[in-house]
Amino acid sequence: MAGSRPLGGWVGRGAWWGVMASLAMAAAGCRSFEKDWDLARQGSATTDPLRVAGAWTGTWQNTNNTHGGPLRAVLWRVDDHEYRARFHAGWGRRSGSFRTRLKGSWTNGVFVFSGTRRVLGVPIRTAGQVDGTRLESGYDSPFDRGTFTLGRQAAD
Question: What angle do CA 38, 117, 125 make, to 5 degrees?
């Protein structure tokens, strides 16, 4: 029809705005993680007498393929049976962060945890343990499975 806009023009603009909004949210999430990371490295998150809260750094590795990369985490103590965790993972030139809760119990100075978190609608199951110096966990989803290992990041 004369004078009408093709549908593709509107769809293209919608897709462009969607991409831009996604990039803005990812950038905001990275900046927000960096703020939490900086505070944890300065020692503000290390008030946990059980020495689990604070900054952690290490790597993640899929066991069903060769994907892996750097991993950082900030943990906050909620109570004796729960910690909040924020992870920031890198893969290639990309990175992303997500939050989860680590629920579990203490056995001989080690916090043993497990749980499930949905990321983009996909359930990811985790199980692991953490003490004052090392965090080790496995993860499993319909698409990937693997491990991550982190060590205590020294305060600045």
Answer: 110
| Position 117 in a domain | yes
Residue 19 lies in a domain: no
Q: CA–CA separation, 111 vs 36, rounded Å?
A: 22
| Beta strand 134-140 pairing with 145-152 | antiparallel
Between residues 29 and 36, the one the model is more confident about? 36
Question: How deeply is 61 buried, as exposed, middle or buried, from its count of CB atoms within 10 A (0-12, 13-18, 19+)?
Answer: middle
pLDDT digits (tens, 9 = 90+) for 59-108: 999 999 989 999 999 999 999 899 999 999 998 888 888 889 999 999 99
The whole-number pLDDT of residue 60 equals 94
Distance of CA 101 to the CA centre of its chain: 11
Determine the Cα–Cα distance for residues 104 and 126; give it in Å rounded to an integer: 11
- Residue 146 inside a domain? The answer is yes
CATH code at position 103: 2.40.128.120
Q: Which residue has the tokens 């945890």?
A: 113
* pLDDT digits 0-9 by tens, 48-64: 656 788 899 999 999 99
Domain that holds residue 108: 40-152
